[in-house]
Amino acid sequence: MRPPIATLPPAWRRDRLVLADLPQFTELTGDDEGVLLAQRARRGATIAGRGSPPRLQELLAAYLNTHPGVFVRRLSVTSGTRVPTAQRRALGLRHVSDWAWMWTEEAPAPNPNADRVRRADLTREAEALRATVDEVNPRSDADPEGPDEIVWWVVDGADGSPDGVIGAVREGGYVPGSHSWHLHGVAVRDRARGQGLGTALVTVATREALADGAAWVSLGLYAENHRARAIYERLGFHELGLVTSYTHASVRARSRVGVRAVYPDRALPEQPRLRSVETAALRWEVEDST
């Protein structure tokens, strides 16, 4: 069962990043200093934390001690939260990226290239959309055939293949039953750069999302991508937080069935059980060295 908004500590009940993620999770712990969300499934646990890095380190340590042997598939926490090397190695986690979460509630002005942007036919064009994302941004896990996709947009190139693409998924909103849209998979091929297509794609997607009733529109970008940040800020997006993400070493970026472990039957790899909480050598400690 998904935790209702009312169960969130008061400090997080209007936090857009937490509210966007909330529908994906079934476990919640924390307080006004930090909140940890978790979802344990057959393919592994996904854990997300937002708040003060020292408090998140405490919450994460407590969660791992309470769930010894848990297979952590994904972990995303507020940047600055220390996940000591010993913990990462024991869990089999590798660092993936540091990224900024940005949002807007205001529709940007119409873009002069908007007439070049059209909605994609996901039943017919998924492979071409995925190939474009893989070519331009192989670190992205956006997948046009993912279970939560709402719509993808495309700019056609002269040869009929995409010059640029962007997709959107539906996420949580301010109150139960409301929603937001998260844009992802923004990709413009080298041959089409310098034409403002990325700006046009984000503009069209944002305007359509807000017209559809989204409470806000969000997107993520790699923290070092200062050029993209400047573009999004001009379009009215504001940064809400920096996030550091890890995945299990057995997880690859994406496949035809979305993000998955690299095992043919999609079964979880054998995970050595950690010793009990009372075993000092493997007890998760907040003061462990990095």
Automatic annotation (TrEMBL):
One protein family per Pfam: Acetyltransf_1
Alphabetically ordered keywords of this record: Transferase
Domain of life: Bacteria
Keyword Transferase among UniProt keywords: yes
Nucleotide-binding as UniProt keyword: no
GO molecular function terms attached to this record: acyltransferase activity, transferring groups other than amino-acyl groups
Segments forming domain N-acetyltransferase: 112-269
UniProt cross-references to PROSITE patterns, sorted A to Z: GNAT
Gene3D superfamilies to which the protein is assigned, alphabetical: 3.40.630.30
InterPro entries per UniProt: Acyl_CoA_acyltransferase, GNAT_dom
Entry protein name: Acetyltransferase (GNAT) family protein
